[in-house]
Amino acid sequence: MKRFLACCIVAVAALFLCDYASAQTKKKEYKDWAKFYRYEKANAEVLASGVRPDAVFMGNSITQGWARKNPDFFKNNNFLGRGISGQTTSHMLVRFRRDVIELNPRCVVIMAGINDIALNNGKITHENILGNIISMCELAKLHKIKVILCSVTPAVSFRWRPDVGCNPAEEIIRLNKMIKEYAESKKIPYVDYHSLLVDERKGMNRKYHKDEVHPNSLCYAEVLEPTILPVINKVARTKHTYITPIEKK
Questions:
Q1: I need a labelling partner for 180 at 20 to 30 A (CA). Which of 127, 152, 190, 207 fits?
Q2: Could you read off the pLDDT of 19-69 as tens digits, one per residue?
Q3: Contact 57, 63 (CB under 8 A)
Q4: What is the rounded CA–CA span in Å between residue 249 and residue 52?
Q5: Which domains does the chain have, with CATH numbers?
Q6: How many CA within 13 A on the CB side of residue 67?
């Protein structure tokens, strides 16, 4: 009898674990891979306001950090930050309609590719990274949204992916060359942040980061903002002058 009860308990436990595992699998299957939810509420507010954004910044954690660390640069210039940490060009392409096209900005600023090189979404060739970027550009053009392409910022290592079997610095340089050549062939403005930030190691100047990849507030205010602003003004035919004040230490 005891043996029978023990067998029943084991069987019930096994069924429970199977159901739990199945539920977890389904949860993963239904995961919002592109993270449409991230800006769902903010996008609804923009559309309800009836105000056309002058620029939407599409990107990864570098763009997300920019809007978080220097929010007044975006607010005071009628810009929107639509960066999501960890995202690759594949993620961005999937959500491009929701986070850019439907907002109908005068222009879109695209800075993407570093997480592809870090293999965040698995192995991908430089040609396919560029292909995703080209697709975003073509979608924008189709909807009469001007495009500004930005270089990938320099990096010599990825702290979250120390096992990446490549030299990030050289791979970034190679991808930037491809992005620049495409931009020039299509007469799309290309903003070369890489040349402004790179040091003798081919990484980011230590003055502007804490982890080899993500810019600090000084980097945004001293380099990225004054560099991108005149390009947006020219492309979108605006006259923005606001740049985040640099705090004196």
A1: 207
A2: 544 444 445 446 899 999 999 999 999 999 999 999 999 999 999 999 999
A3: yes
A4: 37
A5: 52-235 (3.40.50.1110)
A6: 21
